[in-house]
Amino acid sequence: MRAFRVAYDGRPFYGFQRQPDVPTVEGTLFDALRALDVFGDDDRKPPGYAAAGRTDAGVSAVAQTVAFDAPDWLTPRAFNAELPGHVRAWAHADAPADFHATHDAVRRTYRYHLYAPEASVSRAREAAARLSGEHDFHNLTTDGNGTVRDVDCSVARDGEFLVLRVAGGGFPRHFVRRLAGVVHGVAGGDAGLDRVDQVLSAERLADEWGVPTAPPEPLVLVGVDYPDLTFERDPVAMETVREVFGDRRRDGLVRARVADEILDGL
Description:
Elements: E1 2-8, H1 25-35, E2 50-51, E3 60-68, H2 76-80, E4 87-94, E5 107-115, H3 121-131, E6 133-136, E7 148-158, E8 161-168, H4 175-187, H5 194-200, E9 219-225, E10 232-233, H6 235-264
Parallel strand pairs: 3-9
Antiparallel strand pairs: 1-3, 1-4, 2-3, 4-10, 5-8, 5-9, 6-7, 7-8
């Protein structure tokens, strides 16, 4: 069994989980493994396969983790030979035969990048502190069970962004994005801190008072912890990650500059 760390830009994909007629991250990984003859065309997935999490459409990752029975020659560098540039394996670890990438993860960490140049970081931190700890988060998900979670939330100012960090053993559907919406509302002054108490109450919020799901694009899976695994980074693979995402960053800066020029010229 071998586990791989995978980074990807989630914006071109319809989520992580494989779907029959649209591009997904998992489908892209499977296509690469089939091209490498790691498993056959008639098989649904590689033997022993599991992933750390199923990110939503548009959500990106630094440390998504997938594991399966892999040949010894399959390194991150070899994996990348059949992957598109915006999906990159960059580290691997040998794992026990019974390892499961989903169930054996003890902690997952996400960051949500809130564009909020005028928002109050102190109010955001107060909201994050109240949301931290063990609560029944049934008002922050569409899931009907598994809503009691113990999470750690913190906020840092980074230029025009508030960076919300959310860590825990696992999260129900849409949880982090809805939590980000609550923090953003409090930080921007659209809601008071009593909004947090309302969200955490045992009462189910009526539709008109419900918590909307924030956009997926600012969300990144940045960490998945496995106490018994030691990941070996592949320097060549990591350099390709820097090159690919460095190019994408420059493209974004150019697009932003052109947008500024148009706005300034109106």
